Amino acid sequence: MEESGFTIDLVSEAHLVKAGLSREDAGVFFAQLQAIVTQERRSQSNIWQRISKELLRPWHPFPLHQLLYYSSYGDWDVSTRGPPLGWIPTPEIARQSNLGRILERKGREVLGEKYRSPTESLPELQRWSFEHPELYLPLVWEHQSLIFHQHPRCFLDTSDEANQGGVWLPGAHLNVAECCLAAKGSKTDSSIAIMYRNEGEDDLPVREITLSQLRADVSRVANSLEALGFKKGDSIAIDMQMNVQAVTAYLAIILAGCVVVSIPDSFVAKEIAIRIRISKAKAIFTQDVIQRGGKKLPLYSRVIESKAPLAIVLPADGKASSLSLRNGDLSWDEFLVRAEHLSRPDEYKPVIQSMDSYTNILFSSGTTGEPKAIPWTQHTPLRCAADSWAHLDSRQGDVLCWPTNLGWMVGPMIVYSAFVNGATLALYNGSPLDRGFGKFVQDAKVTMLGTVPSLVRAWKASGCMANLDWTAIRAFGSSGETSSVDDDLWLSAQAGYKPVLECCGGTELGAMYVGGNLVQPQAFAAFSTVGMTFRIYILDDSNNPYPDEAACTGELVLHPHNFGSSSTLLNADHHKVYYQGMPHFNGKQLRRHGDIFQRFHGGFYKAHGRSDDTMNLGGIKASAIEIEQVCNKAHESVQETAAISVQPPRGGPEELVIAAVLKPGYNISSKELQKIFLSHVMSNLNPLFKVRAVAVFPDFPRTASNKLLRRVLRIECAKLLYSAPQSRL
């Protein structure tokens, strides 16, 4: 990649050849490039938009994409203009998006003189949605399959001052699983609810399940649960891959008025036991084994080791399992037989409950002690679906695919995003790291593909997605980690430069408080807007909010009135965790979230990690994520880095150690890397920042949800700095 300041007018045929084009292709490409640069000379954004749409193709070498993107914005001043734009919607795309249609239909009515056009007025609509959620959310619900059996007596009750978040939709009753399964509006019984494929069946047609078939399957499971004696309010765990049966069980538990306990399928027995104990789960749906990447990994044996209650065990391959079950446990077929005595086992009357009834218990990652048990009420699924409708543009006719697990919030989120919005849920029962997953995305004609940056980096490194047709994709979603520009650039290119919509939220929110959309231009690895109905603040070092629109960096906190957010924890003091010690602003105590964010001129946001990932280097606060973004680009041998602050054993200023993982085939000394990282950190961030040492690891330790275990790395880096030579890494 060329140096910063290298602009598009300096690109030559030789640069194109160096980036991977043949000499013959470079000549033709260069002529086309010169024409665009000449015609659009006054607009860097227009130059990049035309290059990305007219010249670059997914099969072009990635260094060519990098060369043209970075040189298009070679002299771009981020400090005054914000991040450079990676994607700009056409007026037609903006108008036809879900938010664009609201703006065209209601913009002038609700915004008055502030309304300009769908492409210009989203910031005003977002502020209006916070001030008037009682008007905004019903506009969204008009397009969703919600069934209120009893309507609320008001929208938000704030009469109880002890409840900072208020009570939303008091008096309303529904069953959110019924809403998922209802043939309402554009959804019909013949609509395709799920498309799926099992790993190893890449050459077989994608299988389909209609809405009526799914409703019948869910009803049969709900009837079987009732036949076993489960009743309203009982907690039932799910610990299995996110396949058709897992989604069926998830909806059935909620349809029956019970509560899902979400457990990731990668957890060891001890972690399973903790979650069962906290949630008081009375049964668990699981599998005999996990089939992923051509391997079979034990799961049922871990469930037994956890001393779980009644287990309902499914065969991973969909065939009869020869596994010997624990006394009292049931196979999937034995379980379903329990409903056979009914005259209509494929029908079930939903258990209608108040909005504050629990539907799901999810858990924080638990890397710093016992995980927080976060109950989702019926508000939270509605929030998930509304956010997806607004920020991911989910709608009838879409095919949504997000490789994840029901143990993490994205799993339930994508279920509600699809079914409540009338879209199809696409499920791949296997590893998302391999080409088989990419072929499923192609064959199912997925229109919205969700990812995490580490998954994108794995695809990019292996080249496994080469020459697949992902042109049906309208947008990508990205969450779970901080993205890099190169992650998003590569991903966007795979579908012919479709937008990557960054999402940032939290399990306890059930929502994204910053995100993207199809109305505004999007910048790679950045968020273009605050989440609809949210109000956020960025705090300065004195815990005072910076002025609105001011460019700044600090801890992001939330206004307490957030539809769908948690109001209690099962095993911790909710007020202490989220409110204690937080400042008041305009008469409201602000809600803690713990992310460090940067707001740019122009309204874009970037995440800089958790507040507990910050460090003090020479008296200056620094974000680990910010340092890592610089080091990740410092040398071609680097696959990823982690910035770790280490406290000397006898006290004193923190010292910065860079942990690094190298790409396969590279061998470079830690001393040489230290010099490279030091130069880049000093020149790109602050000349006072010193890289004390570099530690090279084969891989980084991570949690089951792929979050970096900084605590473990900190211990190893401290050994490197302060232990005797024989104990060094």
UniProtKB/TrEMBL annotation:
Coiled coil: none annotated. It holds the Pfam family AMP-binding_C. Residues 626-707 form the AMP-binding enzyme C-terminal domain. Gene3D superfamilies: 3.30.300.30, N-terminal domain of ligase-like. Transmembrane segments: none annotated. The gene is LOC112282561. This is AMP-dependent synthetase/ligase domain-containing protein. SUPFAM superfamilies: Acetyl-CoA synthetase-like (SSF56801). It comes from Physcomitrium patens.
